[in-house]
Amino acid sequence: MTVSRRKLFGLTGAGVAIAGAGAGVAVHESGHDPAAEQVPFHGPNQAGITTPAQDRMHFVAFDVTTSDRAELVRLLQDWTRAAERMTAGQEAVEHGATGGGEQEPPGDTGEALGLPPSALTLTVGFGPSLFDGRFGLADRRPPALAELPHFSQDNLDPARSGGDLCVQACANDPQVAVHAIRNLARIGFGTVSVRWSQLGFGRTSSTSREQATPRNLFGFKDGTNNIKSEDTAALDEHVWVRPGDGPEWMTGGSYLVARRIRMHIETWDRSSLSEQERIVGRTKGSGAPLGATDEFAPVDVRALPDDSHVRLASAENTGARLLRRGYNFTDGSDGLGRLDAGLFFVCFNRDPRRQFVPMQRALARDDAMMEYLEHNGSALFACPPGVRPGEFWGQGLFG
Amino acid sequence: MTVSRRKLFGLTGAGVAIAGAGAGVAVHESGHDPAAEQVPFHGPNQAGITTPAQDRMHFVAFDVTTSDRAELVRLLQDWTRAAERMTAGQEAVEHGATGGGEQEPPGDTGEALGLPPSALTLTVGFGPSLFDGRFGLADRRPPALAELPHFSQDNLDPARSGGDLCVQACANDPQVAVHAIRNLARIGFGTVSVRWSQLGFGRTSSTSREQATPRNLFGFKDGTNNIKSEDTAALDEHVWVRPGDGPEWMTGGSYLVARRIRMHIETWDRSSLSEQERIVGRTKGSGAPLGATDEFAPVDVRALPDDSHVRLASAENTGARLLRRGYNFTDGSDGLGRLDAGLFFVCFNRDPRRQFVPMQRALARDDAMMEYLEHNGSALFACPPGVRPGEFWGQGLFG
């Protein structure tokens, strides 16, 4: 399934070589081509949750600027059509970047012309504020979409938090992810405005057993015991909203929690290897639990320090599991001579009140790692189920 | 030449799979593997200038915080050793992330463990302010390293401009580029502090005839007529500093100009296709000059509109050519509902007084595209020649 934009729009000429820009047509040693890959848009669940985590992310939160419910519905319809097209490697709208009238603005901004689908997924979510009454949705708000509580040591910046809507774009080529977000923002001009956005340059989680565990900016493997897309029973138990969990429109959906976690990497880098490993609860080289040698060795949390991250975050401690899908970020510097870098934590869970919230409460209170972290952005979104052909994102909510 | 960090440090275990994180071991359709590729560090010129432009960039400008010349020299020596190692896919120092003492801070921050060299290049430059007298270098300042003049419509942010030193890290994996900058910053703790840094997610220039021309965030192919690494006569004429051009220590070096150019993409996206093409001077689909059909057709600048970008930037207009090596960026949003996105323009030239400055003057004054641009960061650096084994970056300046 490698429909490229250039094939669809008949571009020719020496400049349209197979390489596109950059890693566009890279082929993994396994023969798997991460650029050409196309992830189906339609299905019972939205893509971008259990999809094997792509390499790059562009995440955006929007404020809705209209109070007209019909306009909001039209936006979701238009976005769905554009998402169907862009995830298939096509331009955002028909008559895309160059095919429309010369005297019209192009219907697509063009920077992804010639690039393959790159496993692009687009995942939409609805924030608690969307249910505040402006759109007649107050009585459809799921109880699980309760505002997150204040956590100990939170230092949240409102300009990096909240939002009425979100779109998570993940792809193996960042140009494809940025293009998708930009074109959705453009389609939404006059209806939504960008509240905040975050670029993630490298995935920090595996969501498939076929993926190697990547490293976060503390230099440690992250997400070894993540729920994987192959663990369908665990997904049903911990990720997907089930019938009876709340309003029917969320069945097959999931709750997304995003946290912008600045890492004080300069301080971390001055702590000893043994201290780092004690804080994490794993060895730095192999990623094995302390005392073991294999990354995937079973974790005996009772053998780990009480305040170690892995112990506190474990299902044994909180009874909760999450599907983590975060990304490393670097956003320039902070004016104090340090890089502004860290983890853009994203997780999906069936009910944050029983999963993310107790886990984060335990971490915020006791995790030795907190000394090196600053949570400065936070948001929660209800991601509706997937759409069938002809439907639109959130149709069950507005129907 | 694919020496990976994990091989050198004997990491084992199931988690150290061949894939590393993300596009680590991607192989181009041509059989070329952009992750495994290793660019030689040593040579008559620094790497990262004519090296075929890698996909991603992390650029950092430092202020020197010591006034001790010997400390500065020691830093450049330490940086050179670390750069030799990291560009070879090794950790920043011996006894890297996990091989030192348990009670010592690791010598490498670890997030690139297991990742191949990814064509990493590190290129150092010296800003005009380094020659202000603190280090006894005032009489060694090249006349060509004159502060850039104010250009019409400049709106420069001092926090995104200038710097005593710069390091440009380019790689096909952003995690590798970020790791390199972070470890150099760490090595420099107490001697330098980060003044500003910029992540570029996608290259906007080709610097080799083997590369397809990428697109900028206006959706146009950028850099079709760039100087290519194969054009050795043009490189000698326009890029490399020659004997007699100025102080001998810069022979074989080049001057780097960086400009952070915010693009008003929302406004651009509302202009018609014909207006966009008229402003650029090329067609959007193929990238061909207006009136032609092939991207690489000769450009007859007299046939283009007087205020078109390609005409004004042409060698016919200004007599100047540059080696461009810029990157697309997206840095969140601007608080006004718009993405903060654009082009991090980087060019290399033999004498900016005769090349970049007249070209930018012409563009700033007359280019129709300026309505959609805001230059908000600017810096100039003298990049010394390459180093031989045992030498250090800038040895000729300090020797």
Number of contiguous helices of chain A:
10
Could you give a short account of the major beta sheet of chain A? 6 strands, antiparallel
Return the average pLDDT of chain A rounded to an integer: 91
β-strand percent of chain A reads: 15-25%
The global form of chain A is: globular
Low-confidence stretches of chain A: 6-30
Number of domains of chain A: 1
- Into which percent range does the helicity of residues of chain A fall? 10-25%
SSE pattern of chain A: HEEHEEHEEHEHHHHEEEHEH
**Protein chains sharing the most extensive interface:** A-B, 108 and 108 residues
- Our Rg estimate of chain A from Cα atoms comes to 21 Å
How would you name the oligomeric state of the polypeptide chains in this document?
homodimer
The N- to C-terminal Cα distance of chain A equals: 33 Å
SS content category of chain A: alpha+beta
Function (chains A, B): Involved in the recovery of exogenous heme iron. Extracts iron from heme while preserving the protoporphyrin ring intact.
Keywords (chains A, B): Heme, Iron, Metal-binding, Oxidoreductase, Peroxidase, Signal
Cofactor (chains A, B): heme b
Protein name (chains A, B): Deferrochelatase
What does this structure look like?
Two copies of one chain form a homodimer. Chain A is an alpha+beta fold and 399 residues long. Chain A has one domain. Chain A contains ten helices and eleven strands. In chain A, strands 6, 7, 8, 9, 10 and 11 form a six-stranded antiparallel beta sheet that branches. Chain A has a four-stranded antiparallel beta sheet with strand order 3-4-2-5, with helices on one face. In chain A, strand 9 (327-333) and strand 10 form a beta hairpin. In chain A, helix 2 packs antiparallel against helix 3 (174-187). The model of chain A is unreliable at 6-30 (pLDDT under 50). At the A-B interface, strand 1, strand 2, helix 3, strand 5 and strand 6 of A face strand 1, strand 2, helix 3, strand 5 and strand 6 of B. Chains A, B: Residues 86-116 are annotated as: Disordered.
